[in-house]
């Protein structure tokens, strides 16, 4: 059976007819995975399948002639494998697939353990009803979620789990940045630098506090090299959180009027229009789209992600002294080698690229092991 073209479905859960690819990363995950399988030398037929009632129109932010997209009801027949990724199938749909021998994979790219834990502790409603599908054949988990989520998924979903490589594609980034100066890529600017912190601030995994502290420490050391600090996804914190407001008012950046706390922004436009250096911090989530977007576009990224220690300006763990040293280095010297930096970043990111032949071969090995019922 190995080597034959497979018919592969990947689920989406559309919320609107023109839903942005930047609303969250899940649709970009689906498109990248679809592109990878479409690039297989085995000639797989890949379908994106919407599990909601939202109509499929030309307003969708991807080319329907490249990524064939159907309602689930119009595309489930004849599938060899279904990846449940962006939209959940129900028991009746599961039964239809199982009757025709389709393998069903739960492809996990969200921090569900932490999301559920925080929902329970803080009263954040995640769902009014939950269906834990007992009929998955396997759970595939991307590496940055393996450590935290493996036990959660194995216990609830009662089937084998595999760690699978992360897949990324710059197509959405480049399409959104096409109209921007230099395609949104980094270019040196004279004078002090604009710092940005772009954490989502929706859970403890990626929060803005330590990146702000890194900027503050650098400002105390080299104030003349820092023009401003923008903190996105922080408007609500700066408006309603007493603790956040009180801590921010201790900072020299804030006292000097060189910090802003604003709402949600789209990455390409914000990088191009407001940013020279990005500062980040993660806790048990060592890889995400924002990191790769910044590095692909050549922006200096100050980060603590051990998974990509060879990208950007890496500091270990919670070592803010090391992080500050890296930020000061970027402030001082990045523009001397910005072009070489950009080229090296793109070369190193190829290991995640949906067009990588090695990555395509790895996923072909995984999917043929699945359909053949053998270890990968």
Automatic annotation (TrEMBL):
The source's domain of life comes to Bacteria
Which InterPro entries does the UniProt record give?
Answer: DUF2827
Entries under Pfam families matching the protein? DUF2827
Identification of the protein by name: DUF2827 domain-containing protein
Organism field: Methylobacterium aerolatum
């Amino acid at each position: 059976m190995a080597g034959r073209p497979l018919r592969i479905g990947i689920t989406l859960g559309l919320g609107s007819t023109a839903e942005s690819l930047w609303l969250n990363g899940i649709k970009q995950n689906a498109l990248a995975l679809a592109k990878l399988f479409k690039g297989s030398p085995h000639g797989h037929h890949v379908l994106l399948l919407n599990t909601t009632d939202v109509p499929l129109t030309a307003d969708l932010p991807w080319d329907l002639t490249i990524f064939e997209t159907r309602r689930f009801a119009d595309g489930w027949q004849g599938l060899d494998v279904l990846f449940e990724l962006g939209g959940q199938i129900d028991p009746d749909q599961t039964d239809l697939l199982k009757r025709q021998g389709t393998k069903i994979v739960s492809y996990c790219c969200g921090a569900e353990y932490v999301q559920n834990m925080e929902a329970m502790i803080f009263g954040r409603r995640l769902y009014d009803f939950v269906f834990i599908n007992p009929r998955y054949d396997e759970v595939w988990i991307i590496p940055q979620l393996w450590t935290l989520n493996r036990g959660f998924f194995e216990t609830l979903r009662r089937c084998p789990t595999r760690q699978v490589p992360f897949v990324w594609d710059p197509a959405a980034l480049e399409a959104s940045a096409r109209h921007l100066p230099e395609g949104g890529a980094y270019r040196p600017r004279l004078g002090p630098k604009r710092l940005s912190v772009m954490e989502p601030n929706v859970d403890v995994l990626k929060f803005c506090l330590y990146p702000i502290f890194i900027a503050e420490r650098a400002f105390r050391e080299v104030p003349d090299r820092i023009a401003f600090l923008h903190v996105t996804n922080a408007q609500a914190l700066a408006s309603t959180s007493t603790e956040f407001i009180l801590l921010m008012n201790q900072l020299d950046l804030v006292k000097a009027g060189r910090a802003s706390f604003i709402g949600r922004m789209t990455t390409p436009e914000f990088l191009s229009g407001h940013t020279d250096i990005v500062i980040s911090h993660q806790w048990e989530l060592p890889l995400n789209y924002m990191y790769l977007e910044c590095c692909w576009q050549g922006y200096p990224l100050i980060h603590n992600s051990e998974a990509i220690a060879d990208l950007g300006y890496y500091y270990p763990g919670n070592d803010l002294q090391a992080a500050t040293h890296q930020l000061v280095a970027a402030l001082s010297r990045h523009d001397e080698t910005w072009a070489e930096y950009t080229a090296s970043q793109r070369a190193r990111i190829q290991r995640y690229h949906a067009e990588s032949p090695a990555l395509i071969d790895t996923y072909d090995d995984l999917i043929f092991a699945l359909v053949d019922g053998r270890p990968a």
